[in-house]
Design goal:
The chain is mainly β and about 450 residues long. It has two domains: about 1-170, TolB, N-terminal domain (Rossmann fold, 3-Layer(aba) Sandwich); about 175-440, Neuraminidase, CATH 2.120.10. It is about 10% helix and about 45% strand. It contains four helices and 32 strands. It has helices at about 15-20, 65-75, 105-110, 155-170; strands at about 1-5, 20, 45, 50-55, 80-85, 115-125, 125-135, 140-145, 175-185, 190-195, 205, 210-215, 225-230, 235-240, 245-250, 255-260, 265-270, 275-280, 290-295, 300-305, 310-315, 320-325, 335, 345-350, 355-360, 365-370, 375-380, 385-390, 400-405, 410-415, 420-425, 430-440. The strands form eight sheets. It has a six-stranded mixed β-sheet with strand order 1-8-7-6-4-5, with helices on one face. Strands 11-10-9-32 form a four-stranded antiparallel β-sheet, with no helix packed on it. The chain starts with a strand and ends with a strand. About 45% of the residues are buried.
Length: about 450
C-alpha cells in the first residue's frame, strides 16, 4: 500500500494556465525532492488536451511492469490527456535520472510534451514517482509508495493518478471512487454490485430475493441504500459495510423509489403518502422524518448537491415528467427541463452548477446537461441505443450512465462536456442505475 509521503510540488506551466480556468493563487516554485503537504492546482478541465510522457522506470522493482501498465490504463480514462508514443520522442523514454539536474527535458520539449512522469525504484518493493512540467523543467509533485504484494499495485496506481489529476485539474476523486450499480442475475432477480470506474475489484454486496435497483452510497462510505421489489412488496434495502449485512425496511403505501443520501447521511426517498409518491426525508435510523417535496403530481428520483441546499427531481406536476429544482431552505422551485416532453433521471453535480438528465427522443433516451449558471443545455450522448440514468461523479466532471448501445444494458462513462463514452467492466448480465462513492 502507499506510504502517504508526498514530494513537494512546484507551479504549473504557462501553457496549462492558458488552457485552463484559474480559481486560486499558484504556489511558489519548490526544490525537487523536498517533502511537504498535498497541494491542489488551481485549474479545472475544459475542452483542451494535455500531452504527457511516461519515462521508463529506473531501478529494479518487483512489480515495475505491472505498475507501469496500471498507470497507463488509468490515465487512458482522462479524455483531456494524451500519453505520447515513446517512438515519437527523440531519444526515447529511457533516462539516466528520475529527478535533479541530470534529468533530460529537451527531448520532451521537442516532442511537445506538457508533462513528464518518472519512476525510480528504491528497492524491489519501494518506488518514487514524480511529475514535472516540461516547458520550464519545474517539479510538480512526487510520492513514495510501498508495494508489499501484487495486490497493492492497483491502489498505488490509483493514488498516483489521483495526485496527477489533482495537479492538472484540482480534483482527483475519480481515481479514489467506486461505482455501485444494479446487475441482473436472472428473471425477477437483480442485486447490488460495486466496481472501480476503471474496472477491477468487482464484487457483489447483496443477494436477496427480488429486484434490487437504484443504489446510493452514503458520504461516509458506510451504507448503500437501494429500492427492493419482491413478489409481495416494495422496500428500502440498506447495506452496512461494517457488518456486511442487508436489512429490508417497509413503509406504508408500498412504494419506495430512488433513494439518495443527504450530506448529513440522512436519506431522501420517494414514498407514497396518499394518491401520488412524494419525496420524504428519513432520519439516521431510516425512519420517515418529514416531507421534502410534495406537489399535486408524482415526485420521484431526488438528487442533492454537496451543500444539501439544492435538490433536483422528476415531477409530473405540469403533466408530462420534467426536471425541477427546489431550494430546500427557501422552498423556491425552478423548472429545469424546458424542451422535450419526457425528461427523467436527474443528477445534480456535487458542486451545484450542473444538472444531468435523460430525455426521451425519437431513437431512444439521450443524456443532457443543464448549466445552472447560464441556463444553457447541452446534449452529451448520442447513442446508439438508449442512454439513461446519468450520475455525476464526486469531481463534478465525469458522468456514469446506463446504455443499450452495445446490445445489452451496460454502464458507461462520459464527461460534463460529452465525448466518446467508455464502458465500465461490470461482468456478465445487464447493468444499470450507476451511483458513485468515495473509497474510505
Amino acid at each position: 500500500m502507499k506510504s502517504g509521503r508526498f514530494l513537494r510540488r512546484g507551479v504549473l506551466p504557462a501553457l496549462l494556465l492558458a488552457c485552463f480556468s484559474l480559481f486560486a493563487p499558484v504556489a511558489a516554485p519548490a526544490a525537487p525532492g523536498a517533502l511537504n503537504d498535498k497541494f491542489l492546482a488551481p485549474v479545472t478541465p475544459v475542452a483542451y488536451r494535455v500531452q504527457a510522457a511516461l519515462a521508463e522506470p529506473l531501478g529494479e522493482g518487483r512489480y515495475s511492469r505491472e505498475l507501469q501498465q496500471a498507470i497507463l490504463h488509468n490515465l487512458s480514462f482522462l479524455p483531456f490527456l494524451e500519453i505520447l508514443d515513446p517512438a515519437a520522442i527523440p531519444g526515447g523514454v529511457r533516462l539516466t535520472a528520475a529527478s535533479g539536474p541530470e534529468l533530460d527535458f529537451e527531448r520532451f520539449r521537442l516532442s511537445r510534451a506538457d508533462n513528464l512522469i518518472t519512476t525510480l525504484w528504491i528497492n524491489s518493493r519501494q518506488v518514487e514517482m514524480r511529475a514535472f512540467e516540461v516547458l520550464g523543467g519545474r517539479f510538480m509533485f512526487g510520492s513514495r509508495f510501498d508495494l508489499p504484494d501484487s495486490g497493492s499495485v492497483g491502489d498505488v496506481a490509483d493514488e498516483f493518478c489521483a495526485q496527477f489529476m489533482e495537479a492538472l485539474t484540482g480534483r482527483g476523486d475519480f481515481f479514489r471512487s467506486m461505482i455501485t450499480f444494479s446487475r441482473k442475475d436472472g428473471p425477477r432477480k437483480s442485486d447490488i454490485w460495486v466496481v472501480k470506474p476503471t474496472g477491477g475489484e468487482l464484487r457483489q454486496i447483496t443477494n436477496i430475493p427480488g429486484d434490487s435497483i437504484s443504489p446510493a452510497w452514503s458520504h461516509d462510505g458506510r451504507f448503500i441504500v437501494f429500492g427492493n421489489i419482491d413478489s409481495k412488496s416494495h422496500a428500502l434495502g440498506v447495506w452496512d459495510a461494517r457488518s456486511n449485512r442487508v436489512q429490508r425496511l417497509r413503509f406504508p403505501g408500498n412504494t419506495v423509489i430512488g433513494p439518495c443520501f443527504m450530506p448529513d447521511n440522512k436519506v431522501a426517498v420517494s414514498l407514497t403518502d396518499g394518491r401520488n409518491p412524494s419525496i420524504f426525508l428519513l432520519d439516521h435510523s431510516f425512519r420517515k422524518e418529514k416531507p421534502l417535496i410534495n406537489s399535486s403530481g408524482i415526485d420521484v428520483s431526488p438528487s442533492v448537491e454537496a451543500s444539501g441546499e439544492k435538490m433536483v427531481y422528476t415531477s409530473s406536476r405540469m403533466g408530462n415528467p420534467h426536471i425541477f429544482m427546489t431550494d430546500l431552505k427557501t422552498g423556491a422551485t425552478l423548472k429545469i427541463s424546458n424542451e422535450g416532453t419526457y425528461n427523467t433521471d436527474p443528477s445534480i453535480s456535487p458542486d451545484g452548477t450542473l444538472v444531468a438528465f435523460a430525455r426521451q427522443m425519437g431513437g431512444g433516451h439521450r443524456i443532457f446537461v443543464h448549466d445552472l449558471r447560464t441556463g444553457r443545455e447541452t446534449q452529451v450522448t448520442f447513442g446508439p441505443g438508449s442512454d439513461e440514468q446519468p450520475e455525476f461523479a464526486p469531481d463534478s466532471y465525469f458522468i456514469a450512465f446506463a446504455s443499450t448501445r452495445s446490445g445489452g444494458r451496460k454502464i458507461y462513462l462520459t464527461t460534463r462536456h460529452g465525448g466518446e463514452a467508455r464502458q465500465v467492466d461490470t461482468g456478465r448480465g445487464d447493468s444499470s442505475f450507476p451511483a458513485w462513492g468515495l473509497r474510505k
